[in-house]
Specification:
Blueprint lengths: L1 E12 L7 H5 L2 E12 L18 H7 L4 E5 L4 H10 L3 E4 L5 H17 L1 E2 L8 E8 L5 E4 L1 H4 L13 E2 L1 H5 L6 H7 L3 E2 L10
Parallel strand pairs: 1-3, 3-4, 5-9
Antiparallel strand pairs: 1-2, 2-6, 4-8, 6-7
Helix pairs in contact: 2-4
Length: about 200
């Protein structure tokens, strides 16, 4: 069974080496919509794949990191990267170009890492990320699946290679959340008192 949670954010970028001249030469922004699709072969005690309320925690904080931020590819010109860091308090440094395609891979990867590092408390089953769809505009989106995350030709993704500015980190519920994720420290979902015996 699948469930879908929608996230929204505003973001600016340059997509180097693309065909469109405007996109590769000028900073521009989009109103992004990110669809996170989770799958499981069994339901929890609440008869859900995964409680939507749980997606308002670490995953939401990480996705929200991209809101009103500028994203740049670590391979870009050092002067451009320095300017992004100097003139924007909110920035995200990526090991891949900030295209819609790579955003879908990044969000899949990050959500997957959080789920794998979360101790569940309500009988959840084999919950995992099925797919991520990133709408860059109303007419265009990119969708990734597990095979795209594991495809090294699309770029290797590691937690250590994604960097969030100090301002972004300061706005998280736990400013040390990403360091904990990188260190393999587990997140714990809230305990659940069952009203009906299952």
């Amino acid at each position: 069974m699948l469930i879908r949670k929608l996230f929204k954010f505003e973001n600016a970028h340059i997509v180097r080496n693309c065909t469109s001249d405007r996109c590769k030469r000028s900073i521009h922004g989009h109103s992004y919509k990110v669809e996170l699709l989770l799958k499981a072969s069994k339901l929890d005690h609440g008869q859900m794949v995964y409680d939507f309320g749980l997606l308002k925690g670490v995953i939401k904080d990480i996705f929200d990191s991209f809101d009103h931020a500028i994203c740049f590819w670590q391979q870009d010109d050092p002067n451009y990267i320095q300017a992004c860091k100097q003139f924007s308090a909110r920035w995200v440094s990526l090991p891949v170009s900030p295209s819609a395609e790579q955003f879908s891979r990044i969000f899949f990867f990050l959500a997957q890492q959080v789920l794998q590092s979360t101790i569940t408390e309500n009988g959840e089953g084999d919950v995992s990320v099925y797919s991520v769809i990133v709408h860059e505009t109303d007419t265009g989106y990119a969708q990734s699946f597990l095979e795209d995350i594991e495809n090294q030709q699309m770029g290797i993704l590691h937690l250590d290679q994604i960097e969030f500015s100090e301002q972004v980190q300061a706005e998280w519920a736990d400013p040390h959340m990403y360091e904990k994720l990188k260190q393999g420290i587990k997140f714990q979902n809230p305990a659940v008192e069952l009203q009906v015996k299952v």
